[in-house]
Design brief:
Length: 192
């Protein structure tokens, strides 16, 4: 009970955020494997005891950052209720939020951080499943393969936009069109 209370205490939440923000700033400067707890503590302006009170190691910070990003992603999706009809509008709004999110952009730029973004696969699956046109004849397994393909492609395109500083608003219609074509064509019949 005490552990649960401590994790929701305002000071605890603030300290955890300061540590996670310091980690994101360091990722902008160097590869993950070169970040040390001492350096992270200096950046966050805390001592090592405080660090270990909140996190066991750096990988636990990464998990917390991923979980926070996923929570924001899922909250957004819940409020938007994507369907096959409003998918493009939701996609535009979501991309604006993502491309303005310093944490997401930083992780997309850091090649060695891509494993953190793997957590986005499951929520993307649900979004894509909701936007599959009605009457699809795809089995659960075929849908899983299609969504895996689409999610990998979407994340890759987003990373390309970030690395190349592209005009996302201008180019998102291309990505949405590709997703729409694949969802529609693959959902029509089993005659590939």
């Amino acid at each position: 009970m005490e552990e649960k209370k401590r994790k929701t205490d305002r000071r605890t939440l603030y300290t955890r955020k300061v540590i996670m923000d310091a980690y994101i700033q360091l990722i902008k400067e160097k590869p993950r494997d070169r970040i040390k707890v001492t350096e992270l503590c200096q950046r966050a302006e805390i001592n090592r005891c405080t660090f270990y009170l909140h996190f066991q190691d750096i990988s636990e910070i990464e998990i917390s950052i991923r979980d926070e990003l996923l929570s924001r992603f899922e909250s957004f999706v819940e409020t938007q209720k994507p369907t096959s009809i409003n998918r493009k509008k939701v996609s535009d709004k979501f991309l604006e939020k993502l491309m303005e999110d310093d944490t997401y952009v930083t992780l997309m730029k850091a090649t060695d951080q891509m494993n953190l973004l793997a957590g986005f696969v499951a929520p993307y699956f649900h979004v894509l499943k909701d936007t599959l046109p009605p009457g699809s004849s795809l089995s659960e397994r075929e849908q899983e393969l299609l969504y895996s393909f689409l999610v990998g492609g979407i994340l890759s395109v987003q990373r390309n936009w970030i690395l190349n500083q592209s005009n996302v608003r201008k180019e998102n219609h291309i990505l949405d069109r590709m997703v729409q074509i694949l969802l529609t064509e693959m959902g029509k019949s089993k005659d590939y």
